[in-house]
Design goal:
Helices cover 62% and strands 14% of the residues. By secondary structure, the chain is α/β, with parallel strands linked by helices. The protein has three domains: 244 residues, P-loop containing nucleotide triphosphate hydrolases (Rossmann fold, 3-Layer(aba) Sandwich), CATH 3.40.50.300; 115 residues, no CATH class; 196 residues, no CATH class.
Length: 614
């Protein structure tokens, strides 16, 4: 598929209606005629990704400035299917009649940045890796599950800490209860309490304690159900689809059947709420019964204590203390049981989360293998001049930045410790160490002191671990250029050398649409006439290249299929002429506007003369 037509309404290029050919199209014109503007409008309309953040923002702003509130339409075709894409200055996203094919666009000055920045080098290889879209979608799906589960684990671990603290505060209750019962037994013996009184006292103490423990369980259950009901209300009240179809959208409500299905789902939420509210009502009845019974028990017990106190003062106080300790012991026992249940739930969630992380890691491994295959193929095609290498999970900058966010305010030198943690511990290893408060794991992996490791654990324990565990860790791509007898990495090379590396890699992908704005910037004529032109002439059927250029060697020696000459009066730009290399007006435009135009045609003529004589 290729870009067939570009139309612009309003703005600097208002009224532009330009057709492109399959093959090589070269946009020429004096500076300020709109070459860069046209490239950025196509990028804007197709929402084509940029290789760097700076290029994306700069290109987006230029497109909006050129449109001035108007819109651009790009038509793509493969001879059978046509895709029309429209985007106005106010559109958040493009509107298209079908899925938009992948288009690679590099704006002015973006080529040299590709070789210098890790994200640019990665993007360069990724455009040659067809399976990444599916792998990315699967990875993001699993990452969302991991983030959600890690948040749930954090809440469960907080509950466990709180329960363990409460149990610790009640340490020794059992021993106190045993001692209080012995004291009570002695007191009852001193007043010669009957066996019936003793039996009744024991029964009342136990029942009173059970009622109070049960009351706390029922109240907690009501609170949990009411919290669930609040969440259901929030979901049910959320406006998912427009309630009515606006007249301005046409007579046919295309959402009618979808709206009915969504409404049916919302109605099912109402039924769930009825069940939840019914459960709250039933528990409230149980609670009321227990409260009523508790009042009865307290009254019977009060009378019994008063009767025993009349025989010997202080017996009632002892029995009250036994009752209070019995209740506390019951609460602690219930807490221990709940603690075990929460521990089991947390262990289960951690196991599930860790399995998901292994699944995520397997996607990352597949992604690396795909990139490594592309890197090997490029090296084989372009060696010995250019070598491309892929390294597994080398780009940990985003991961380190997430750790820094968690360590801010801790008083630690997070800018030093975060990269160390990111390089030596996977997100899962770090999160598990924090969750289990295992400072020794940090000491062993990162050679940190015990004090620093413990401080890091404490700081990250209060941070958003779900962001850390799902931090994107990208593979590293290294581009090398043979410079004399040695290879030089692209980030250490000059701007011209970076372009020498990147341009052949861009042209290595066949069957795609590639747009480049002024690729000759920062590279010399020998490279253009040799490496770049040779790559352009070796394009295959199905390749569409659209280049904006000032250098005549690119259209002339590159055997352009179409040349588009733009012109402007400073306020508005337009297509002055469009045609092939044999078109006299195109020849005039190239020799007049472009650098070395006459010489390029002379070299072209000499080439054809030598081929005919040969």
């Amino acid at each position: 598929m290729h870009i067939e037509r570009v139309q612009v309404d309003e703005g600097f290029l208002d009224g532009l209606d330009l057709r492109f050919d399959p093959g090589l199209n070269v946009i020429i014109g004096a500076r300020g005629s709109g070459k860069t503007s046209l490239i950025e409008l196509i990028r804007f309309c197709l929402a084509a990704p940029a290789f760097t953040d700076e290029a994306r923002e700069r290109g987006h702003q230029q497109a909006l400035s050129v449109l001035r509130g108007g819109q651009v339409t790009v038509t793509l075709s493969d001879g059978e299917q046509t895709v029309v894409v429209v985007r106005s200055a106010s559109d958040e996203d493009p509107r298209s009649t079908a899925e938009v094919p992948r288009v690679t666009i590099l704006g002015q000055g973006e080529i040299e940045a590709v070789g210098a920045q890790p994200s640019g080098r990665l993007h360069l290889v990724d455009r040659l890796t067809p399976t990444l879209t599916r792998e990315r979608a699967e990875s993001e799906r699993v990452a969302r599950q991991i983030r959600s589960m890690t948040s749930e684990i954090r809440d469960l671990l907080k509950d466990l800490d709180q329960m363990e603290s409460q149990i610790a505060e009640s340490q020794g209750v059992s021993e106190e209860l045993v001692a209080a019962r012995e004291e009570e037994e002695a007191a009852l013996a001193s007043v010669e309490a009957s066996s019936e009184d003793r039996s009744q006292l024991d029964q009342l103490q136990r029942e009173s304690a059970q009622l109070k423990v049960r009351r706390s369980v029922l109240e907690r259950s009501i609170a949990e159900l009411e919290g669930l009901d609040t969440e259901l209300v929030s979901i049910a009240n959320r406006s998912v689809l427009a309630d009515s179809w606006p007249e301005a959208a046409g007579d046919v409500d295309t959402l009618q059947s979808i709206r009915a299905a969504v409404q049916e789902s919302i109605d099912s939420i109402a039924r769930i709420r009825n069940v939840v509210q019914g459960a709250v009502g039933e528990i409230n009845v149980l609670l009321e019964n227990d409260v009523s019974r508790s009042v009865e028990v307290d009254e019977i017990w009060r009378q019994l204590r008063q009767r025993l106190d009349q025989v010997e003062r202080g017996v009632g106080e002892v029995t009250r203390r036994v009752e209070a300790l019995t209740e506390r012991a019951g609460q602690v026992e219930a807490l221990r049981q709940r603690l075990q249940e929460v521990e089991e739930r947390a262990d289960s969630r951690i196991e599930q989360r860790d399995a998901l992380y292994r699944e995520l890691d397997s996607f990352r491994q597949l992604r690396f293998e795909s990139r490594n295959q592309v890197a090997d193929a490029l090296t084989q095609e372009l060696s010995p001049n250019i070598v491309v290498e892929a390294s597994r999970s080398m780009e940990t900058r985003s991961y380190a930045e997430t750790i820094i966010s968690g360590l801010r305010g801790s008083g630690l030198h997070y800018s030093r410790h975060a990269p160390t943690l990111a390089m030596n511990m996977s997100p899962l290893e770090l999160v598990k160490a924090v969750e289990s408060r295992d400072a020794q794991a940090l000491v062993d992996a990162c050679n940190l002191s015990d004090r620093v490791a413990e401080s890091i654990i404490q700081a990250l324990a209060d941070s958003d671990l779900s962001s850390i565990i799902a931090s994107p860790i990208e593979d590293g791509i290294t581009l090398k250029l043979l410079d004399g007898a040695e290879y030089k990495e692209s980030q250490e090379a000059s701007i011209g050398q970076r372009c020498t590396i990147v341009l052949p890699l861009l042209l290595a992908r066949h069957g795609d649409i590639l747009l480049v704005d002024q690729p000759e910037d920062q590279i010399d004529n020998s490279f253009i006439a040799g490496t770049l032109v040779r790559a352009l002439t070796q394009r295959e059927e199905g390749d569409q290249l659209i280049l904006a250029s000032h250098n005549a060697n690119i259209p002339v020696l590159g055997e352009a299929d179409a040349v588009v000459a733009l012109a402007s009066n400073g306020k508005r730009g337009w297509v002055d002429h469009r045609g092939g290399l044999d078109d006299p007006e195109v020849v005039t435009a190239i020799t007049t506007v472009m650098e070395g135009g006459k010489e390029a045609f002379e070299r072209r003529a000499e080439f054809y003369r030598s081929r005919e004589s040969g």
